[in-house]
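ok trying again, last paste got cut off:
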Amino acid sequence: MKRSKFLQLTSFASAFIVNPLIWPQSTKVKIEQLMGLNQSHLNAQNTLENQTYIAYLSLKDAAKKAGIDLKIVSAYRSFQDQKRIFETKFKRNKSKGLSDAENIKNIINYSTIPGTSRHHWGTDFDIIDANVKKPKGDLLLEKHYHGNGVYCKLFEWMQENASKYGFKLVYTNNFHRKGFKYEPWHYSYQPVAKTFFSIQQSNEFRSKWNQLQFVGKSNITSKILNNYFNEHLRDINPSLK
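nice, full thing came through this time. structure:
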């Protein structure tokens, strides 16, 4: 990233940290970016959206002072990446004899439909604390972030400080919330993500999404898709809508 661009982004980020609801209205967002088809909104490493990246650096620096080494284990994910995940699961489920409807419902318990993932946006990431010893197996499990879990300190610190830098937990531990399961590791940069969310809910977005192609899409009925948009995509932390 060129120094002039970095300084410009830093000035924007400083404003966001003071007031997390500020977002430059002049910024043009392309639906292709929100579907993981265009990376022009990302930082030089293609890991996070530009403004999110600058705010994350401030968050990481603050965490370091508290003895926590924030490490992103999953950030930006392209359409092709999500397509590969979805198709792999679809084919595997099909080989087990699941019906088409059961297959789709099984996948969206834990994975997003290609083109709709918040990870396409570059505003979202999954984090761990690199200062502690990694647990065996899957890192992103609820038990690691609560009780005596290795990432308990990280989660408690984020709960107290993440909002100061504009970051919010996406899939909260709310009994009445529908859609994706609780994820204490998944945060989103509110100032940008709220704008992206509103665009994702538009008819224009749905129309362009209808043009995408991937294995299993023809098995996603209108009822399943509408429920998916209403529950999985919309039933999130209210502060992100």
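cool. Strands lie at 70-74, 124-129, 167-169, 186-189. The domain at 3-240 is CATH 3.30.1380.10 (Muramoyl-pentapeptide Carboxypeptidase; domain 2).
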